[in-house]
From TrEMBL:
Name listed for the protein in its UniProt record: NtrC1
UniProt source species: Desulfamplus magnetovallimortis
Transmembrane segments: none
Superkingdom in the source lineage: Bacteria
Keywords: ATP-binding, DNA-binding, Nucleotide-binding, Transcription, Transcription regulation
Coiled coil: none
Annotated Pfam families: AAA_lid_14, GAF_2, Sigma54_activat
Classification lineage: Bacteria, Pseudomonadati, Thermodesulfobacteriota, Desulfobacteria, Desulfobacterales
All copies of domain Sigma-54 factor interaction, residue ranges: 187-416
SMART domains on file: AAA
Gene: ntrC
Amino acid sequence: MTKSSFDLFKSFAGELDPRTLQKKFLLSLLKLQNVHRGSIWIKKNNSYHCIEAAGKESDSIIEIDIDADQPSIVGWVIENGKRTVADTKSDGRHFRELEDNMAVKSSLILCFPLFLKEKEVYGAVQIIDTTPEKSCVNLDEDYLNYLQNLVDIGSVALSNAILYSRQVKEAESLKITLKELQKRSSLIGHSKSFQQCINLARNYANSDLHVLITGESGTGKELIANEIHRLGHRSKKPFLVQNCSAIPKTLLESELFGYRKGAFSGAVRDKKGLFEAADGGTVFLDEIGDMPFNIQAAILRVLQNNEIKPVGANEIIHVDVRIIAATNRDIKTMIGENRFRQDLFYRLSVLPLELPPLRERREDIPIMVKHFLKQESLRSGQPEKKLKPDAMQRLTTWSWPGNVRELENLIKYLMVAIDSEYIDAEDIPDHFFEGSVHDIHASSPLSESGDMEDRVHSRSSDFQSSKAYYYNGNINVPEIDRRKGGINFGNFSWQEVEEQYIHFTLHKNNWNVTWAAKDAGVNRSTFASRMRRLGISRSNLPQKA
Ligand SMILES: Nc1ncnc2c1ncn2[C@@H]1O[C@H](COP(=O)(O)OP(=O)(O)OP(=O)(O)O)[C@@H](O)[C@H]1O
């Protein structure tokens, strides 16, 4: 192997920067052919773009495009995937204008295609003889085959380097975006009760005491724990999460505290636990109410002495972690039932924070809906959808037993299932409203333009005082119990209640749909579409006996 071909291989092996690699690649090839002028071209949309050139006056062609419609040697090689030798005086493929401003013109061009791994051509490399005798370039067939092999290896190396540098750039821009996102809070909500929680979280972030967050499932306990970590001095260290309920007791212990090799069958090497891995940072213990009693004692040791003992270890390890725990259980009752250690509770609840359920901060629903619609549109690349007022009204009157998580999931569903840009109340699936109807007469921020359910509520005195549902003039009397915080419709599903209400209103208005809709407080088309969906029409009524 000659020194030049050795240099060529070296340039392929060691270089990841495409600009440096393409330069070295071209210069080595030119050396192997004893010439000074050459260029590398790649296919770009409808043209061929010069990414590298060497030799006198070569600067004038770097970054130049040759239109794909123009005859050119690089174009021919790229399109045919074959090398060629062209006498520039007689070859019709030669694009002469390129050399208009050059004092020395080319006399012979040897051009090789550049292949990707899959044999797809992505460019071409030109080796140019400028001597009138065309005597520099070695056109021996064996030598050209040898060069083609080198070019093949070089072109794969070059395409890999281009891909690598693109990925590096992409990763860098993702890192910047991530850093920006980490600086921002992802907590949404402007209601007074939620803002109080955020203020409390900000104050707690300035302290290093442990925190106990309570609240129903899906209210954002993990998110607020993350916020406390993000705003505190531990923010550059890990925030690690362990759900204490989703995992068997023995596994939970080794996840939290780690284990030593041989501690149990399968422990083939030492493993660090969450507390060690989070050293300097925060451990979020979700569902702490479900933590087994004996592990509670080990957690107490972390809280009191900053100590852990891995499973199977003889020694104690010191850790520096802040614990934020969360539960949706009534811990005080659990203490009374000896299911939760009182000392642990007192240690954990130095800084308590209670998150209100979504139904108690309904004014946050519209802004959350907008946030999740935007988030889903960014995630999926779909255009952002909007909720029509009647759809929004429907959401603000629902009790949200699954809290923010349930709302987020509904938005995910709507983004996928609904094609149109605007979401109607009818698009919201019935199962979100079936079963028990919670809190139906809780106040709604949109009650001015209320939807059907709201009407059920606002007309409920009328509807309930009769303690009767009308059906074809006959009266059915289901049990309606008032319970704390809402109306219990017994075993009736939402759909049945809705059906009864529509029948009731129609019957009252002598089956005049316009009057019935007016009576229900919704527009005629909404009322009629609901009738259609529920299959209600006068002709469908069962005949009186
Ligand atoms: N205020 C909020 N702003 C934006 N998103 C929120 C908010 N609250 C909750 N979420 C979202 O709702 C979902 C549930 O939140 P999170 O897991 O923090 O609730 P949780 O109370 O810890 O639930 P669980 O008790 O089931 O563990 C997450 O996707 C979270 O991003």
